[in-house]
Structures are given as C-alpha cells and as structure tokens.
C-alpha cells in the first residue's frame, strides 16, 4: 500500500471514530492495518478517550506520539484516582452509616426506656440534649476505652499531650514539677456537662475534683443553710471546684468518708472538664510529698472558692462588729453631750434656782415663835424649812 493511501485511510478511520464518539455510537471491533508505525497511536487514543469520557476529560492532542502517550498516561491516572476516590468515599459513608445506625439504636433504646419509666418531658429533653452534645464532641468514639487499651508508655504520652497545657492553666499546678503533673495528667478523665446541670450540691459528698477546660459555672453557698447568708461566684476556664477533696487527701488522718461539699455548682452552658477521682487524688498525694509544702497550701487557699468565702465571711463579721461598736460609741457621746447641754441650758436661763433643803433639827422646850414662815408647837421636834436665795 502506498504511504499516501495509508495516510488517507487512517484519516478516514480517525474521522469515523471521532464521529462515533460524538454521536455515542457503540463500536464493537475495529481492525486497522497501517504500515506506518506512528499512525497506529490513533486507535488507542480514541479508545482511551471513550473510557475516560466518564471522568469528564476532553483532551485534544495532535498527531505526535509524545503527546498521545502523555494523554494516555493522564487518562489512566485519572481513572485510577477516580476509582480510589470512589472507594474512599464509599468506605467513609459506610463507617458513618454504621455509627449513625448505632446512634439511632442507642437513641431508640433511650426513648423506649424513658417512655417505659414515665419520665417527665423536662427530664427527657435533658437526656436528649446530653446525648446530642456527647455525639457532637466524640462522634461516637469512646475516648476513655480507646486510650486505656493502649500501652502504658503510649498512654502517658497521649495524656500528656492532651492535658498538660490544661493542667498548667490551673494556678494550683502551674509551678509543680513534671513528675507530679504527669501523674495527675495520667489519671484525669474527660467529662461533659450540659446547660443547667448540677455538678455537685451543697451537703453532698465530693467524689471528684473538677478542672474546667471550657465553659462557665455558677458556685453558690448558704453556709449550711444559715439564715441571711448567701454567697455567689462564677467559675471559668482554668478554675477548679471540689477543693474539699484536696484538703481531705492531704490529711494523713482522714477517714474513709468523703468530705461534704460546701457549695452548689451548676453549669450555665456547655462545660468540658477533666475529673480527678478521690482515690486517684489520694494516691497522688501519698506518693508525692511536694503537695504538703507550705507554698502549695498557700496557693491552694488563695485560689480556693471555699477559703475565699471564709475570708469574706470573716471580713464581713469584723466590719459589722466595728460598725456596731462605732454606732454605740457615737450614740453614747451624743447622749452625754445632750445631757451636758441641757443642764447648762437650765442653769443659764434661771437667774435664781430654788430648792428646799433641810435645816438642822431644833429642840424646843417652850413655846417659841420664829421669824420664819413656819410656827412651832412646844415640846415637839420641829424641822424648819427656810427659803434660801442662791446667786
């Protein structure tokens, strides 16, 4: 075959293939016998375009072999990447569907249980809100069990990475050594409190110490229900509550009974925190004697809500005593001044003050008439009253 005829034939077949691709015609089998090697790249190119048309590529190449090979490689890579993308999306959707199905099952079980126990609508709403917040924060992953299943060394490093900066924000642990902070971080457990949830009530036993990561809480005390006493404070990020537990843990003679809470702590919004349980804190206090130092106790008392309340109570009591004593002293001074002024006023206004004063008794044995205003009878002890003029 003449080379010119071969070129014309290939161009004709190329035109037919382009027309078939444009018109979406199905081509079962095409055989081309071309004597010139570079022209044989046309058929693979068009077949790959047919396969690659699902990816959305429309490469327009020339008749050069290099561009044709480059187009083939790009088409194959596009197909491979597209297949990987589809596989990843399918796996992700399957995993999400499994977790969503687990969440639906758990929610359905909780709804059935609440309906069976005839819980009021308010409690049901609180349960639903807690489950929703927990799902949004954890995405169905049990973080505690996941970390607990890891080796001890790896678990310590993960806890240190997650909790070190948060524990350092607490002024009580800001200046402590690394070993003590690591021991505390290793024993912290994440917890979540929804809005209007009571963390602890006044008088209830304290079973954990709470370090706040995010959120805002309200702390109230009535000093054991004492009449006329009310103290209110707010806790924010970096604060802590349940300090009665630390005092209990630092006391070597403390009994097994947990201390009672002196305050009522309530979450004002969504609160994330780390909790340190009583037994864990007791173990840390027994292993690290640094917690018993004066500096740590002074820092604890300075940032403790309980000690602040006591200090405010003592200041208020001392101020009331001082104010009461000052009022009494002022009243006494005013009364004394009024008495002196009234006495001086009476003496100044009266030119002559009259008073009846008793004179000495005069014993008479005979009838005697005195030149006074009184008259006597003989034989009687008579007391004579005289009018005296005073200057």
UniProtKB/TrEMBL annotation:
<keyword id="KW-0406">Ion transport</keyword>
<keyword id="KW-0539">Nucleus</keyword>
<dbReference type="GO" id="GO:0034220">
    <property type="term" value="P:monoatomic ion transmembrane transport"/>
</dbReference>
<dbReference type="InterPro" id="IPR018490">
    <property type="entry name" value="cNMP-bd_dom_sf"/>
</dbReference>
<keyword id="KW-1133">Transmembrane helix</keyword>
<dbReference type="GO" id="GO:0044325">
    <property type="term" value="F:transmembrane transporter binding"/>
</dbReference>
<keyword id="KW-0813">Transport</keyword>
<keyword id="KW-0472">Membrane</keyword>
<feature type="transmembrane region" description="Helical">
    <location>
        <begin position="68"/>
        <end position="87"/>
    </location>
</feature>
<dbReference type="Pfam" id="PF00027">
    <property type="entry name" value="cNMP_binding"/>
</dbReference>
<comment type="similarity">
    <text>Belongs to the cyclic nucleotide-gated cation channel (TC 1.A.1.5) family.</text>
</comment>
<comment type="subunit">
    <text>Interacts (via N-terminus) with DMI1 (via c-terminus). The Nod factor has no effect on this interaction, implying that the complex is maintained after activation.</text>
</comment>
<keyword id="KW-1071">Ligand-gated ion channel</keyword>
<protein>
    <submittedName>
        <fullName>Putative potassium channel, voltage-dependent, EAG</fullName>
    </submittedName>
</protein>
<dbReference type="InterPro" id="IPR000595">
    <property type="entry name" value="cNMP-bd_dom"/>
</dbReference>
<comment type="function">
    <text>Cyclic nucleotide-gated channel involved in the establishment of both rhizobial and mycorrhizal associations. Required for full activation of nuclear-localized Ca(2+) oscillations by Nod and Myc factors. Simultaneous activation of the K(+)-permeable channel DMI1 and the Ca(2+) channel CNGC15 can give rise to sustained Ca(2+) oscillations. May function during fertilization in both female and male gametophytic Ca(2+) signaling.</text>
</comment>
<dbReference type="GO" id="GO:0031965">
    <property type="term" value="C:nuclear membrane"/>
</dbReference>
<keyword id="KW-0812">Transmembrane</keyword>
<dbReference type="InterPro" id="IPR014710">
    <property type="entry name" value="RmlC-like_jellyroll"/>
</dbReference>
<keyword id="KW-0407">Ion channel</keyword>
<feature type="domain" description="Cyclic nucleotide-binding">
    <location>
        <begin position="172"/>
        <end position="255"/>
    </location>
</feature>
<feature type="transmembrane region" description="Helical">
    <location>
        <begin position="25"/>
        <end position="48"/>
    </location>
</feature>
